[in-house]
Amino acid sequence: MKRNAKRLGLAIIGGGRVGLFRGEVAARHPAVEWIGLAEKNPNRAGDVGPKIDADFVTQSHVELIKRPEVNCAIIATDEHLHVDPIMACIERGIPMLIEKPLATRLDESARVLKLIKEAKLDAVVGYTQRFRRRWLAAKEKCRTGALGDVTLVTSRAFMNRLVAIDNYKRTDDPSTISPMVISGTHALDICMWCLEGKTPVEVYARSIDKVMGPLYKGIDATAGMITFDDGTVYHLSMSWAMPVTWPAAVYSLEVGISGTTGVLTIDDTHRDIVLAVSKPQSEGYNPDSTRLVDFMGSYPPGDMALGELRGPMAEETVSWLNRIALGLPTAAATVEEAHRNLMLTKALDLSAKRRKPLQLPLSEEDMKEVA
């Protein structure tokens, strides 16, 4: 039986890189009849608006969300600015696709989660890597029991320090920025997705700061272990201090999943396509002209090809629009999963700071310190 699509009036809050990517995809979707853009920078708004065929452009997310045409929203502001537009959407009662995280503070994340659940809103969070075929295939093997009972998971994520430098330069408080919270959360989300149904009960971690510490009072890398209620162990390490010349412009990841009847290894280092050039190609979030060798495909949203974004962010956006317009299920992260991911990454950072394990759920004292 053919479904009748709901006609969508889409509000895009934030006209940065992600807002532009998702807006261009939405502009091509047959269910989207109206697009509004809220972007604080008028020059950026003037550039992005025509590219996404925006019907309305403003500097105020409040003004945009009040528009009668709006019946769904994408929250794509900088991470620390998510809460206010989310609250405005809750007040209007409209479904949302929220870029991770829900909030940068754990207490604010908990508050937002509570209000979304009380309002019974359809809200999901943009953990884009879930929409890549390799991770969907890995999830399916874990879901269907091909590995038996999963008992051990390992992940190792390496990132070019250009990403860390960009993040530390944009903050006035480096203590709020860490490789685990900002970037390690993607690997953690994939692995926790494959460990669905298991409850974490303890975290233990150590951090290193020999590169980013002297430069930005920041952290280079964190390695840790999460133990679950059934004895399952997840060992993870995350470094965003790879040299600028490291060929992966952004993310390079390896994962191993071991179970009682099988094992799964995933190489997501992007070493299968290597580009070497004489002139820089502007790869990644924060391109550097000295980089002439690149592991293609390490840019998490995907790749520009034939004039449009191809890859997981485009597929995630289409999937979410289909969810809202047609009521179709998606692989998107729930708001509960997003809050759990933030809690775990902050708990790992706190364990590394204290140099001792932490029990989960976090105590009130721990919650105050990680918030």
Short description:
It contains 12 helices and 18 strands.
Keywords:
18 strands; seven-stranded mixed sheet; 371 residues; Rossmann fold; Dihydrodipicolinate Reductase, domain 2; 12 helices; alpha/beta; 36% helix
Percentage of residues in DSSP E strands: 25-35%
By CATH, the topology of the largest domain is Dihydrodipicolinate Reductase, domain 2
Helix content: 25-40%
- Output the radius of gyration: 20 Å
CATH architecture descriptor text of the largest domain: 2-Layer Sandwich
Low-confidence stretches: none
Main pleated sheet: 7 strands, mixed
Amino-to-carboxy terminus distance? 49 Å
Q: Tell me the strand order in the biggest sheet.
A: 3-2-1-4-5-6-17
Number of domains: 2
Query: Would you list the SSEs in sequence order as H and E?
Result: EHEHEHEHEHEHEHHEHEEEEEEEEHEHEH
Number of helices: 12
Can you tell me the overall shape? globular
Explain what you see.
The protein is an alpha/beta fold. The protein folds into 2 domains: 8-99 and 319-331, NAD(P)-binding Rossmann-like Domain (Rossmann fold), CATH 3.40.50; 130-300 and 343-347, Dihydrodipicolinate Reductase, domain 2, CATH 3.30.360. It has helices at 17-27, 42-51, 61-65, 83-92, 106-119, 133-143, 161-169, 179-194, 212-216, 312-326, 335-354, 364-370, and strands at 8-13, 32-38, 56-58, 72-75, 96-99, 123-126, 150-160, 200-208, 221-228, 233-242, 251-259, 263-268, 274-276, 293-295, 303-305, 308-310, 333-334, 358-359. α1 packs across α10 and α5 runs antiparallel to α11. The model has no long low-confidence stretch (mean pLDDT 93).
